[in-house]
User: What shape does this take?
Amino acid sequence: LLGGSRLRRAKAIEDKELTVLEHDEEQLSAEIRGYTVKIDFRKKTISHDCVDWKRRKHLPPYKKLCKHIGKVLLIVPQGEAETFARDLIANPDSWAVYALGQRERP
Assistant: This one.
């Protein structure tokens, strides 16, 4: 979902550069390096506002994740991140991706 170089860049982001705003079984919201990441596990939506995300979010074979979303997934419990990644890989069409501010699923 990230690729080797993007994963290395995600790991290079310091934990202090990330603030988790909300995190429960239904959603995860964080600010990282001036950007916002929102993942709604119930609605299966991912919203983010970095340039890389806006440019790559629609590309196959899966919905590619940027380094910011990668870093967010590195700080949540491993089992939770793995469940999310497996579902995104197994069911990519059930997930909707948005540039933050774009209209999302109701």
In short: The helical segments are 4-12, 51-56, 67-75, 78-90. The two ends are 26 Å apart (CA to CA). The first helix runs from residue 4 to 12.
